[in-house]
Design brief:
The chain is built from two helices and four strands. With about 60 residues, it is of the alpha+beta class. The protein has one domain: Alpha-Beta Plaits (2-Layer Sandwich), CATH 3.30.70. A four-stranded antiparallel beta sheet has the order 2-3-1-4, with helices on one face. The longest helix has 14 residues, at about 15-25.
Length: about 60
Amino acid sequence: MDHVFQVQGMTCGHCEKSVQQAICQVDPQAQVQIDRAQGRVAVNSQAAAEAIKAAIREEGYTVA
């Protein structure tokens, strides 16, 4: 399943890595593409969108 999220608060490479790691904790097989400038996170995962959003929010980022 493909999911696209708008994530606010990513300002550096460390932020991207934190978001990616949070998603991979929900689904270790997830494929993640992050466009920090656009605040866009595209995820190909079998996990539910709400579970992915919750993991990103737990890292301290806002998911629209």
